[in-house]
Write a structure and sequence with these properties.
single chain; 4 helices; 334 residues; globular; two-stranded antiparallel sheet; alpha+beta; 9-stranded mixed sheet
Length: 334
């Protein structure tokens, strides 16, 4: 089965990106073709979210219409309103009497300090960026310096938007999408080798493997903006893990929890007090099959490996721009 190695290999999902070059920030919209079971797990200490309480298994709403990932820190929460407006214009959303109410949980990352011009006046650009991202949604989309990852940074390297997909032996498809803006590093010590190397497929992020021997500083954490880490929320990796398996909200939450292991496999340190690390889970059910316990174990393991690959791809695909604060991985001396 030929795939795009994107989250859109999971049937029922499309993705769109939009950015503002001057602001150096952007938005990614993940649209569901019908209301989709969803959950969320937050493990970072400084999250920024909208409409996440309704995802808990004990709450009423059973399906969401979209997920929004945005730069802009708290200002970026406006992006979900733009996605919601697009969905409403297309008669999508939870029906309550005569009204359609699109359900669009969202999360943001902090990219205010990246040499972009944030003097946007009274209202931020994120609502319009959210609408534009939804309007461009399709089965293919750009990675790296794009969408929610447009202005992202990691420890010493540009971050970016990453995605990857895989398929279990029992036939379930899994995909990950992530905006990588971590306080930690995705590479080992001072090398260009990715922590996620053991999970790489077909040289998707350079094919370097792990360094051998390991550098002396492999065990020394690299931290972005150490002088700024007293300011909570100056970082954050935000992600979506998706599958075509039939899952309820409780099982989707377990999948989101498992996907966080991919953060720990690809970023060090991760889940810090200064990150808002978060994973949404979507289960489109398009396979028509509910996994048994052994199949679900495989899905959870693959959620971690696929997320780790997506994180590395986000940094690998970043492109150099004028006035970059940190270099892109591809521009660092080999």
């Amino acid at each position: 089965m030929k795939t795009r190695n994107l989250i859109t290999d999971v049937a029922g999902l499309t993705v769109g990106n939009a950015h503002d070059e001057k602001v150096r920030s952007g938005v990614t919209a993940i649209l569901c073709d019908k209301p989709t079971a969803a959950a969320v797990q937050v493990l970072g200490g400084a999250p920024g979210t909208r409409e996440t309480d309704l995802l808990e298994p004990h709450n009423m709403i059973d399906g969401v219409d979209a997920i929004t990932l945005s730069g802009g820190s708290a200002f970026g929460l406006d992006a979900a309103s733009g996605v919601q407006a697009w969905l409403r214009e297309h008669d999508r959303g939870f029906l309550l009497g005569p009204h359609r109410i699109p359900i669009v949980p969202s999360a943001i990352l902090f990219d205010l300090v990246n040499n972009g011009d944030k003097d946007w006046g009274r209202f931020s650009p994120y609502r319009e960026l959210g609408f534009a991202a939804a309007d461009t949604a399709g089965e293919t989309f750009e990675l790296g310096t794009a969408g929610a990852g447009y202005g992202a940074l990691t420890a010493g390297l540009k971050g970016g938007l990453g995605s990857a997909s895989d398929r279990t032996d029992s036939g379930f498809t899994l995909g990950a999408l992530v905006g990588v803006n971590a306080v930690g590093s995705v590479t080992v010590g001072d090398t260009r080798n990715f922590w996620a190397a053991p999970f790489e497929k077909d040289g998707e992020f350079g094919g370097l493997g792990l360094p051998h021997p390991m550098p002396d500083n492999a065990g020394t954490p690299k931290v972005k903006f150490r002088e700024m880490t007293k300011q909570a929320g100056a970082n954050t990796t935000i992600a979506v893990i998706a599958t075509d398996a039939v899952l309820d909200k409780a099982a989707a939450k377990r999948l989101a929890i498992a996907a966080h292991d991919g953060f720990a496999r690809a970023i060090w340190p991760a889940h810090t007090p200064f990150d808002g690390d978060l994973v949404f889970a979507l289960a489109t059910g398009r396979s028509g099959k509910k996994p048994d316990l052994h199949d679900f174990l495989d899905l959870c393991a693959m959620a971690a490996s696929t997320m780790a690959r997506a994180i590395a791809r986000g940094v690998y695909e970043a492109t150099p721009q004028d006035n970059d604060m940190f270099p892109a991985w591809k521009s660092v001396d080999r």
